Amino acid sequence: MELLLGVVLAFAVADGLAIVFGDFIARVLPLDYIKVGAGIVFIVFGIMTFMSLSKEESGETGNIRNPFFSAFGLVLISEMGDKTQIATGLFATQYNPYLVFAGVMTALAALSVMAIYVGKILVGKIDKKKLSIAAGTIFLLIGLFTIIQ
Description:
By secondary structure, the chain is an all-alpha fold.
């Protein structure tokens, strides 16, 4: 539940900002900076994933990551300048911003619930070490792709 709340709150903040500021943010802050920042965050999450894997292998415990804050931070940063956020801002300039926000949040919350549910099923069927390696690699690749693009 904490994970879902973090994801939904991040979407609410990111898309809420898009609705409030429309294309103002895109004009003030170059999209390249937003993309590089998002790419760096993905790379950091990839490195943290590999570091937590090596700690598990050495028998260290004390994982202090909170699912709410991890999901919130990752989703918030990755959504900044995303096509969904830009589209939300554009829709808000043409339609009722409250209805746009309600529609966007409903869709993103439903998708998040499905993703978390499928993730829970897969976690039980896939080796945790292999899953961590795959997640870390995906974070690094997304980060590099975001920066390069």
